[in-house]
Amino acid sequence: MKRLSQIAVAVALTAQLSFAQTVEVPNPSFEQGDANPAGWRLSGGNGQWLRGDAPAGQRALAATGTGEDSNFWRSDEIAFQPSTVYRLCFRGRSLGAEGGTPVTGPVFANRDLGQMPTQWTTYTSIFMTPDTIRPDEAWLRFGQWMTKGMVAFDALELTVAQPVYRRQGDLVLGAGESLSEHQYRFQAPLNSESGNQSRPLVRHRCNFNSNRWVFGRDSEVVYRHELGNRTQTAATVEVTVGWYAGGELVVEASRDGESWRALGTLGEKGSVALPIPADLLPAQTLWIRLRAQAKQRVGQDSDPGSFQVHAYSYAATLDGPPADVRGDTHFVAVPVSDPRLKVRVEGVGDGLPGGDNVVLAKVENTTAQPIDVQPTVTLGRAGQTLAPRSTKATLRPGDNEIRVPYDLPDTGEYALALTLGAGVEYRAET
């Protein structure tokens, strides 16, 4: 059965991100400019600033390839924050293009689109930024790689996003995670909506291309594995290098994220499975670091790097009572929020017809006065809006909890929105 797959909930993430969460993109519908679109420049090759037949306004950008070249439109600098999850929405279409692929998004988290339809289509990309962002990589690009023909883009929107994970008691699991009895398993959901993001991912300094990590000199990816208060008594990590040109992948483990123990290396295309040493166990938390020993840094123009990691998995035996949970991740985007409130969505329930469907949010009222709200959940699909479900609540100064039940009439993809009623400027959308 297909779960609720698209969510929009009005929330603020943290104090430093508590107000409007839409990130400024230069000239996002390409309407401004004289001879060229303001805030954008072409890397080279054949590019067009189209007029007419645009989904937002009158203008759109396009790149045309010969089938043997690559080029893109590049934005001015974007104010990305480090180690932050973003949602990038845009429209795209093919004008008779064949082969190759459109390239989209930031250079450190490229997304190939493959063959686009000829009609304007909405695309959404999720990515987590590196822990350090250099000015020479803090921009967006839209173009083509080895495509014969024209591809076009319009209506960009960049928003901070909050991942919301599945909860069962004290257990929290995201996409790619599962617990069966005492056996925990994580398969990094690299080839999914989550992109490079996952609940165990702590930080990275590594390019990501569509469904794989791209390693070069100074690249590293750090995962932290823990599940509630369960203790891990045995564990194994497995990594697959799916493309290789040079250098070496080093896999390391740690109990605290500071002192690292080398587990093994991989200097060719293939997979390696490495057990966690007995003297690092038992442990509630184990950190795994993947890093490159390579001579060259990864470049900016679809550089394949020294090697690419196509798969990462971690398996562990846990103590405590047996449980069966399959993780899930929904991404909540926050274009608008209220400066008086700090709200964090904790869960959206089962997302299934007849299931335990409840939006749960923790709300901090930062004022000295109570605030009356009317939390309302609205579902929509294919241009139709279902009857909203609402409740009433008074948010007293300090911490509060909001629960709003909702109904799903059948399976399929729904958009879900939560607003907080008149007088409270909350709304976020997918």
Can you describe what's shown?
By secondary structure, the chain is mainly beta. It folds into 3 domains: 22-161, Jelly Rolls (Sandwich), CATH 2.60.120; 169-325, Jelly Rolls; 334-419, Sandwich (Immunoglobulin-like). It has strands at 8-9, 22-23, 40-42, 46-51, 59-66, 70-75, 85-98, 101-106, 109-112, 121-128, 140-145, 148-168, 171-173, 177-181, 183-187, 201-205, 207-209, 213-215, 220-225, 232-244, 248-254, 261-266, 270-275, 286-293, 307-318, 323-326, 329-333, 341-347, 358-365, 371-373, 376-381, 384-385, 389-390, 393-395, 398-405, 415-419. The strands form 6 sheets. Strands 3, 6, 8, 9, 11, 14, 15, 17, 18, 20, 23, 25 and 26 form a 13-stranded mixed β-sheet that branches. A hairpin with a 2-residue loop joins strand 12 (148-168) and strand 13.
Q: What are the main properties of this structure?
A:
13-stranded mixed beta sheet, 0% helix, globular, Jelly Rolls, Immunoglobulin-like, 430 residues, 51% strand, 36 strands, disordered N terminus, mainly beta
CATH class of the largest domain: Mainly Beta
Q: On the 0-100 scale, what is the average pLDDT?
A: 91
Distance between the termini: 22 Å
What is the domain tally? 3
CATH fold-level topology of the largest domain: Jelly Rolls
The rough form would be described as globular
Question: What proportion of the residues is helical, as a percent range?
Answer: under 10%
What is the total tally of β strands?
A: 36
Which class of secondary structure composition applies to the elements?
Answer: mainly beta
Reported for the largest beta sheet, the result is: 13 strands, mixed
Can you count the helices?
0
CATH A-level architecture of the largest domain: Sandwich
Q: What percentage of amino acids are in beta strands?
A: over 45%
The stretches of 5 or more residues where confidence is low (pLDDT under 50) are 1-20
Radius of gyration over all CA atoms, rounded: 23 Å
